[in-house]
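Issue 218. Parser rejects a valid record. Input:
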Amino acid sequence: MVTIRNLGFTYRKTPLFSGLDLDLQPGNIYGLLGRNGTGKTTLLKIVTGQLFPLHGDLEVHGYIPKERVPAMLSDIYFLPEEFHLPPMKGGDYMKAYAPFYPRFEAEGFRRQLEEFELPFDRNLNTLSYGQKKKFLLSFCMATGASLILLDEPTNGLDIPSKAQFRRLITGALREDQTIVISTHQVRDMENMIDPVIILDDGKIILNRNMNEISRRLSMKMFRNEPDETAVLYAEKVLGGYAAVVEEPSDDHAVDLEILFNTVMRNREKFAALFGKEDIRHE
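Output the parser choked on:
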């Protein structure tokens, strides 16, 4: 479990977070969304203890991240968008880094590499960016870490690999595990991430699961442009207009891109609909 209270952080003398509160509960795949420069990657680095907050309280599984306690680090895996792999073979990489993770599953790692069609004995520095990403995703899920943080994990993946990635993540999630995916590629994550977290202006402006969102909002298609007073948000799509209306939905499927745009255009309305406090999952 991750608990953040009143977090403040300044980047190059510019305030980035101010009074940020967030709870992350096990058994969920969170989607962390936000505009460029809102601090998604910075937040992940603060959670892992790579950056230190200016003020506030932050605990990860009972540990304070900035103290970098080995017991905490061995139960966290962070895959950044930009990374470096050493010039060694995959098997040597496993021998070097797997011992840091007590629950590492070597056979699971090998099986996933086969699923991605990656050779185990090839030098990592000869792989393409997408192949390196698949190698690290495979290693990541084999660690058995209780907290997994992925920053733009589908960048560099081709279409078949994106489908394999979704199967890997959803199939491996344990009840005691928390996964956070920071992404702009929301189309790659639909029907996968739940709850949705939206970060803007240094605060969490939405942290809700799909069930709660669908109890308040519906997404509908209109042939003609709807009256702006009848919808929260509408955008032109092939065949008409996709719109979000304030009424319950029988379908929990949510277009994440349209939901994001709706929230950004109606922050005060969403604060009234859902409240400012983070959801406590049932």
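Fixed in the parser; the record now loads. The two ends are 15 Å apart (CA to CA).
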